[in-house]
C-alpha cells in the first residue's frame, strides 16, 4: 500500500468565480478564522492527475463567505449551476456562471446535511437531520415538497439516479441503513442494514456517490474504516467491500471519477485519493486549518445528457414535476393537493395541511408551520377557529378531527378540520377537566379530572370511568395506542407520573422520585420516549416508555409563570409560557435553543399536528366485530376487554376483563385463560425462576392474587458473586462459589460502554458509570427502577465507588479533573477534590478508616489518599508507577492493591507498615480492573479478554473464571454476604445507616466492626493518556482472537483449585470478608469494532453544532488519538 501524507498548501489561481474546467468540487470550513468562514473550491483534473510529493495543490476558489457553514454541494454541468446548503444561514443556494448567488430555499434547520441534483428533471434534493425529512425543490425554489418524513431518524448522505427515477440516502440513526425510493418518495425500501447485511458491512454510513455507468452506489464507513458499495440494478443489491484499512475518523463525503475515489475526512482535515483499480494505492493530504465537508466531481462524465419528461412543459404538472421509473410524476406544495388527473394542484381545504404547531388562546385556535423558526420570511399565526377557549386539545389525523375541552362551556367538543365545518359537542358538563387524549387507532377518547379518568367513544357514547381513586391534582394525560398504555401526571402531595393499561388496570407509579410539580406530558412516538416539564424544579425531562434511561433534557428553564403546553416534532421540542406570551423551540439534535417567538396572546395549550405520530394498525382485537363487545371495546396486550357505560345503555352489555398475560420478566403459560376465576402457571424469562410452584388466580378486579413484579426472580446467587462490566454494553453476574458456571447478563438495556460497577446490598441496587453516555446510573439488580443520578456535558466520567455507610456515591471525572460525590439518589452533589488532580481515574472508599483512595495517570502518575471530605490529602505511591488502572482495597488486611497496565503487574501496599510488594508480574497480559475476596485476587485482562484469579497472598494458581467470551471486560465488583445472615438475599440491616452532612462525614461509631457487617471495597477505573508504546501493545493485544489465546497459565509446583471451598478456610483465620467494587478502563486504543471503543480521555473541542449527535464517531474524534494509532 502506498500512502503519501502531505500538507496541502493552497495556491489560489482565482479569487472568486464559476469553475471553467473539470475537477473535484469541495466545500471546506475554515478552522482558523475568528468567524465562521467556508469555501467552495475546485481542484482541476490536470492538478489531480499530476499530484506528486510536492506538498502543494493549486485550487480555484469558487466562493468564500464569512458567517457561513456550507455542507452539501451539487451541480448541473449543462446549465452551469452550483448548488449548496448552509447550516448557519438556514438555506439552499445556487450560483450561476455569471457568479450570481441566489437563495433557493430559506428554511432549513441547523442540521441540514447532504444535497444532490437531478440534472435531467431540474430538481434539488437535500436531507435535514433536525426536521428528519428529505426535501425536493425546483431550481428556483418556487415549489418545495417534503417527500420523506416518516420513519427517518438521522438522514445524512443522499444520491439521485435520474436515469432510474430513484433516490438513495443513508440513515445514521439507531438502526444504520441505506434506503431507496422513487423520486416522489413512494415505494421505499431498505437495501443495506445491519440486520440483513451484517454489522461488518454498515455501521456509520456517511457520504454517498453513484457510478451511473456501473449502477453502483458507494459510501464511506467511519466506524469500520471501509469504502463500501452496493449494486443498484433494481432487484439486485450485492454489497462489496471496495477498500478496508484506512483509519477514518469522520469521512463526511465521497466523490468518484473514472479513476479515483475521493474521501474527505472532516475531523482529520484530510483528503484521501484512492486508485479505483487498486485502492491500496492511496494519496493522503492534510489540509491545513480547513475541514472538508461535501464534495462532488464536476464533469460531464458525471452528468451525461439525457432527455427528461419534466423539461417539456414541466411534464404538464401545475407545480413540481419529478422523475419516475415510468417517466415523471407531479407533486403539489404546501397548501395544495393533487387532483385526480395527477397533474393539477387545487387549494387544500384542510385547515392544517402538512405539519403544524397548533395552540389555543382565550378565544381562538391558531397554527404555525413546525419550521417557523428557520423560515426566511416573518410568519404570523393563522387562527382558524374563533369563539372557543380550548384549554386542552388532541386530534385524529386520519379522520381530520380536532378534539378540545372548552373551558367556558365545560364541554368536550370536536371539529372537522375542513372549511365550512362547525364544532359539535360530544360530552357535556365535564367541569374540572385537566386533560384529554385521543386513541386514534380505536376511536376512543380519554379525559381526566380531579376524581377520575374516563373513556368514551369519539362520538361521546358509552362513558365509562376506568380509574376512580387516588387522583389528587392531575395535570395532563397522554395515550400510546401502539403500546396500549395511558400516562398521566399528578402534582399533588405525592408528585408522580403514573401509567396503566387502556382499561385503567395494571396501574403503576411510573415515576415517583425527584419530582416536584410535573405539569404537562407528550410522547415521542418514533423513539418511544415520554417527555414532561416539572414546573417545580424548572426542568424538562424524558424517559423511555420501558422506564429506563431517564434524562434531563433542559434544566433551569426559568419558569416564572404557568407553563401551558409541550409538544414534539422530530428532533424539536416546543413549549409555551402563559404570562410571557412566548412560544419556545429547542433543537434536541443540536442541543441548542433555536427560537423564542412572542405571541400576540398567551397560549393556553399546545400540540403538533403531524401524521407521522399517528400510525394506523390492523392488528387489533377490537377491529373485527368490535371485539365481541356490545359497547366499548378496549384492546390490551392480553386480549380485548369489554366495558359498559356508566349510565345504563344496552341491557345486553356484559363487561369482560382480563388479567395480564405478560408480567415482569415472564408471562403466563400459553394455555392460560386469563379471565376471573381461572388459574395459570407462569413461564419466567431466561435467567429468571418463579418464586412459587403454585398457579396464580385471576381475580375479579383483573389482577392476579400475587405480586407479578416479584413472581419471577433472578436466578443468581446473591451471597457470593462478582459483577463484570463488558464494553459491549452488558453487565454480567458471576457466581464466585462456582466460577466455572455461566455468567448471567443482567436485564439492563441501552448501556453504551460501562466502565465502573458497584453494588449496594442495603437496597439491592447496582451502580455503574457509562463512558459512552457520560453518566452515573443505578438500577435494581433485576433491571427495574433504573435512574441516571449524574451526567455531564464534558466527557470523562469514569471511576465510581459507594460509601454504603454514609449513603454516598463518589465518582472521578478526567475531563474536568475532579472528584465528586452525592447522595445515592444523585442529590446534593459536592466536589471533593478539584485542584492538582491531573487525570483521576479509579477510586475506592474506606469507610472503616474514613478515607478515599484514587489513582492518577499521565506524566505524574501516582496513588493518593484523603479523608472522605477531601481534607488530609497526601501521596501514597509515586515511584515505579505508570498507568495504575484498577484499585482494590482489602480493609480486613489493611492493604491496597493496584494493577499497572503498562508495567503489566499487580502490586500491594500495606497501609499500616507502608510495605510494597509485587504480587503478580509474570505470565500476565494487560491487567485492567481488580477485585479481592477472602482468598483470591481477581482481575480483568485486555489481552485474553477474560477474568482471572490468583491466590491473593502468593499470586500463584492463576485461573480463568467462567467460560464467557467478553468483548472487553472492564470494571469488576465483588460481594460476599456476612455468614451470620444465613440468607441468599442481601441483608437490609447489616450496618447502622446514619445521615450526615456531606461536608462533615464522621468515621464509623465506636465498636463498629467493618469486617463482620459490610462489603470490602474494591474499586477501579481505567487509565488516561498513555505512552505511544503502551497503546501499540494494547491495540495488538485486543485484536488477538480468543481462540489464539493459550490456556490459562498454572504454576507447576502448585495445585489448581477449581473452587474457593477447595482451599479450606482463610489462612488468616477470618471467616468472611465483604467487598465493594472495582472499576476500570483507560487505554487509548481502538482495536475492536464490535463494541464501544475504550474512552480516549482527551479534552479537546470539536464541532458540536455539526456532530453532537454522532456518538459512535465522537468517541474517537481526537487528533492525539489518531497520531497514536497511525
TrEMBL record:
It holds the Pfam family Ldl_recept_b. The keyword Membrane applies. Residues 309-346, 621-654 form the EGF-like domain. InterPro entries: 6-blade_b-propeller_TolB-like, Cueball_EGF_LRP_Nidogen, EGF, LDLR_classB_rpt, Sushi_SCR_CCP_dom. SMART domains: EGF, LY. LDL-receptor class B repeats lie at residues 122-164, 165-214, 484-527, 528-572, 764-806, 807-849, 850-893, 894-936. Keywords: Disulfide bond, Membrane, Signal, Transmembrane, Transmembrane helix. The chain crosses the membrane at residues 1016-1038. Residues 1-17 form the signal peptide. PROSITE patterns: LDLRB (PS51120). It comes from the Eukaryota. The keyword Disulfide bond applies. Gene3D superfamilies: TolB, C-terminal domain (2.120.10.30). PANTHER family: EGF-LIKE DOMAIN-CONTAINING PROTEIN, VITELLOGENIN RECEPTOR-LIKE PROTEIN-RELATED-RELATED. This is Low-density lipoprotein receptor-related protein 4-like. The lineage of its organism: Eukaryota, Metazoa, Hemichordata, Enteropneusta, Harrimaniidae. The gene is LOC102806512.
Amino acid at each position: 500500500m502506498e500512502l503519501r501524507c502531505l500538507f496541502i498548501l493552497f495556491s489560489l489561481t482565482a479569487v472568486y468565480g464559476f469553475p471553467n474546467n473539470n475537477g473535484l468540487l469541495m466545500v471546506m470550513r475554515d478552522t482558523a478564522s475568528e468567524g465562521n468562514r467556508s469555501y467552495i473550491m475546485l481542484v482541476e483534473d490536470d492538478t489531480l492527475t499530476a499530484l506528486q510529493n510536492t506538498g502543494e495543490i493549486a485550487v480555484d476558489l469558487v466562493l468564500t463567505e464569512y458567517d457561513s457553514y456550507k455542507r452539501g454541494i451539487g451541480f448541473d454541468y449543462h446549465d452551469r449551476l452550483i448548488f449548496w446548503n448552509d447550516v448557519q444561514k438556514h438555506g439552499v443556494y445556487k450560483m450561476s456562471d455569471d457568479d450570481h448567488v441566489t437563495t433557493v430555499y430559506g428554511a432549513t434547520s441547523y442540521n441540514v446535511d447532504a444535497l444532490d441534483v437531478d440534472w435531467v428533471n431540474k430538481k434539488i434534493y437535500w436531507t435535514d437531520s433536525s426536521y428528519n425529512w428529505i426535501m425536493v425543490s425546483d431550481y428556483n425554489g418556487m415549489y418545495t415538497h417534503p417527500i420523506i418524513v416518516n420513519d427517518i431518524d438521522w438522514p445524512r448522505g443522499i444520491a439521485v439516479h435520474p436515469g432510474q427515477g430513484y433516490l438513495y440516502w443513508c440513515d445514521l440513526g439507531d438502526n444504520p441503513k441505506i434506503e431507496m425510493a422513487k423520486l416522489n418518495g413512494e415505494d421505499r425500501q431498505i437495501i443495506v442494514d445491519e440486520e440483513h447485511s451484517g454489522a461488518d458491512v454498515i455501521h456509520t454510513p456517511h457520504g454517498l456517490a453513484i457510478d451511473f455507468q456501473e449502477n453502483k452506489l458507494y459510501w464511506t464507513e467511519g466506524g469500520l474504516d471501509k469504502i463500501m458499495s452496493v449494486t443498484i440494478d433494481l432487484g439486485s443489491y450485492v454489497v462489496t467491500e471496495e477498500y478496508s484499512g484506512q483509519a477514518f475518523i469522520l469521512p463526511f463525503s465521497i466523490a468518484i471519477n473514472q479513476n479515483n475515489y475521493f474521501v474527505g475526512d472532516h475531523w482529520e482535515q484530510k483528503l484521501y485519493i484512492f486508485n479505483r483499480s487498486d485502492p491500496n494505492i492511496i494519496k493522503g493530504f492534510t489540509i491545513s486549518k480547513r475541514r472538508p465537508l461535501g464534495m462532488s466531481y464536476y464533469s460531464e462524465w458525471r452528468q451525461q445528457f439525457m432527455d427528461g419528461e419534466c423539461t417539456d412543459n414541466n411534464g404538464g404538472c401545475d407545480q413540481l414535476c419529478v422523475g419516475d421509473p415510468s417517466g415523471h410524476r407531479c407533486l403539489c406544495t404546501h397548501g395544495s393537493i393533487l387532483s385526480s388527473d395527477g397533474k393539477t394542484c387545487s387549494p387544500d381545504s384542510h385547515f392544517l395541511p402538512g405539519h403544524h404547531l397548533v395552540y389555543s388562546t382565550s378565544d381562538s385556535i391558531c397554527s404555525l408551520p413546525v419550521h417557523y423558526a428557520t423560515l426566511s420570511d416573518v410568519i404570523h399565526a393563522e387562527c382558524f377557529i374563533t369563539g372557543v377557549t380550548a384549554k386542552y386539545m388532541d386530534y385524529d389525523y386520519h379522520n381530520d378531527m380536532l378534539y378540545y375541552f372548552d373551558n367556558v362551556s365545560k364541554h368536550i367538543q370536536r371539529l372537522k378540520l375542513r372549511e365550512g365545518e362547525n364544532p359539535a359537542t360530544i360530552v357535556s358538563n365535564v367541569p374540572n377537566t385537566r386533560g384529554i387524549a385521543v386513541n386514534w387507532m380505536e376511536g376512543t377518547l380519554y379525559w381526566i379530572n380531579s376524581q377520575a379518568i374516563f373513556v368514551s367513544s369519539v362520538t361521546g357514547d358509552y362513558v365509562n370511568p376506568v380509574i376512580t381513586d387516588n387522583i389528587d391534582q392531575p395535570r395532563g394525560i397522554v395515550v400510546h395506542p401502539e403500546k396500549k398504555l395511558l400516562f398521566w401526571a399528578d402534582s399533588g402531595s405525592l408528585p408522580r407520573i403514573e401509567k396503566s393499561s387502556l382499561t385503567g388496570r395494571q396501574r403503576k407509579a411510573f415515576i415517583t422520585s425527584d419530582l416536584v410539580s410535573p405539569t404537562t406530558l407528550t410522547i415521542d412516538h418514533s423513539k418511544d420516549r415520554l417527555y414532561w416539564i416539572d414546573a417545580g424544579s424548572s426542568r424538562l425531562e424524558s424517559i423511555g416508555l420501558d422506564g429506563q434511561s431517564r434524562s434531563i433534557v433542559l434544566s433551569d428553564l426559568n419558569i416564572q409563570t404557568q407553563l401551558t403546553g409541550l409538544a414534539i416534532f422530530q428532533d424539536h421540542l416546543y413549549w409555551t409560557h402563559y404570562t410571557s406570551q412566548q412560544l419556545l423551540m429547542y433543537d434536541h439534535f443540536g442541543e441548542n435553543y433555536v427560537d423564542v417567538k412572542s405571541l400576540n396572546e398567551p397560549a393556553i395549550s399546545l400540540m403538533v399536528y403531524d401524521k407521522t405520530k399517528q400510525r394506523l394498525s390492523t392488528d387489533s382485537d377490537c377491529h373485527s366485530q368490535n371485539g365481541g363487545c356490545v359497547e366499548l371495546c378496549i384492546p390490551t396486550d392480553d386480549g380485548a376487554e369489554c366495558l359498559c357505560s356508566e349510565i345504563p345503555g344496552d341491557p345486553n352489555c356484559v363487561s369482560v376483563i382480563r388479567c395480564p398475560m405478560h408480567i415482569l420478566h415472564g408471562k403466563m403459560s400459553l394455555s392460560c385463560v386469563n379471565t376471573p376465576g381461572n388459574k395459570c402457571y407462569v413461564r419466567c424469562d431466561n435467567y429468571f425462576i418463579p418464586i412459587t410452584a403454585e398457579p396464580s388466580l385471576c381475580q375479579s378486579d383483573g389482577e392476579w392474587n400475587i405480586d407479578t413484579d416479584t413472581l419471577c426472580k433472578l436466578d443468581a446467587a446473591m451471597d457470593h458473586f462478582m459483577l463484570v462490566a463488558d464494553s459491549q454494553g452488558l453487565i454480567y453476574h458471576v457466581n464466585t462459589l462456582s466460577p466455572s458456571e455461566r455468567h448471567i447478563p443482567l436485564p439492563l438495556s441501552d448501556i453504551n460502554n460501562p466502565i465502573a460497577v458497584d453494588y449496594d446490598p442495603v437496597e439491592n441496587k447496582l451502580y455503574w458509570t457509562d463512558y459512552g453516555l457520560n453518566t452515573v446510573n443505578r438500577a435494581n439488580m433485576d433491571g427495574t427502577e433504573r435512574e441516571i443520578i449524574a451526567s455531564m456535558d464534558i466527557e470523562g466520567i469514569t471511576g465510581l465507588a459507594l460509601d454504603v455507610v454514609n449513603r454516598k456515591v463518589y465518582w472521578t471525572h478526567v475531563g474536568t479533573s475532579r472528584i465528586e460525590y452525592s447522595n445515592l439518589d444523585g442529590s446534593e452533589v459536592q466536589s471533593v477534590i478539584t485542584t492538582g488532580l491531573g487525570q483521576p481515574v479509579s477510586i475506592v472508599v474506606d469507610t472503616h478508616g474514613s478515607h478515599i483512595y484514587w489513582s492518577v495517570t499521565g506524566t505524574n502518575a501516582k496513588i493518593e489518599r484523603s479523608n472522605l471530605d477531601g481534607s488530609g490529602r497526601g501521596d501514597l505511591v509515586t515511584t515505579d508507577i505508570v498507568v495504575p488502572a484498577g484499585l482494590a482495597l482489602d480493609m480486613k488486611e489493611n492493604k491496597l492493591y493496584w494493577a499497572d497496565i503498562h508495567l503489566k503487574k499487580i502490586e500491594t501496599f500495606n497501609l499500616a507498615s507502608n510495605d510494597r510488594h509485587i504480587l503478580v508480574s509474570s505470565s500476565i497480559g494487560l491487567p485492567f480492573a481488580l477485585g479481592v475476596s477472602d482468598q483470591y485476587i481477581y482481575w480483568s485482562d485486555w489481552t485474553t479478554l477474560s477474568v482471572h484469579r490468583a491466590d491473593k497472598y502468593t499470586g500463584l494458581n492463576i485461573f480463568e473464571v467462567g467460560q464467557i467470551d467478553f468483548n472487553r471486560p472492564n470494571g469488576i465488583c465483588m460481594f460476599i454476604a456476612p455468614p451470620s445472615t444465613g440468607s441468599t438475599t442481601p441483608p437490609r440491616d447489616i450496618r447502622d445507616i446514619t445521615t450526615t452532612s456531606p461536608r462533615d462525614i464522621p468515621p464509623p461509631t465506636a465498636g463498629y466492626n467493618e469486617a463482620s457487617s459490610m462489603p470490602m471495597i474494591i474499586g477501579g477505573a481505567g487509565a488516561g493518556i498513555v505512552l505511544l508504546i503502551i497503546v501499540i501493545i494494547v491495540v495488538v493485544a485486543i485484536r488477538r482472537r480468543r481462540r489464539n489465546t493459550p490456556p490459562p497459565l498454572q504454576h507447576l509446583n502448585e495445585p489448581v483449585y477449581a473452587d474457593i471451598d477447595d482451599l479450606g478456610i482463610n489462612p488468616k483465620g477470618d471467616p468472611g470478608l465483604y467487598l465493594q467494587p472495582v472499576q476500570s478502563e483507560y487505554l487509548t486504543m481502538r482495536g475492536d469494532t464490535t463494541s464501544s471503543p475504550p474512552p480516549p480521555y482527551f479534552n479537546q473541542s470539536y464541532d458540536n453544532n455539526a456532530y453532537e449527535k454522532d456518538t459512535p464517531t465522537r468517541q474517537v474524534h481526537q487528533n492525539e488519538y489518531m497520531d497514536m494509532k497511525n
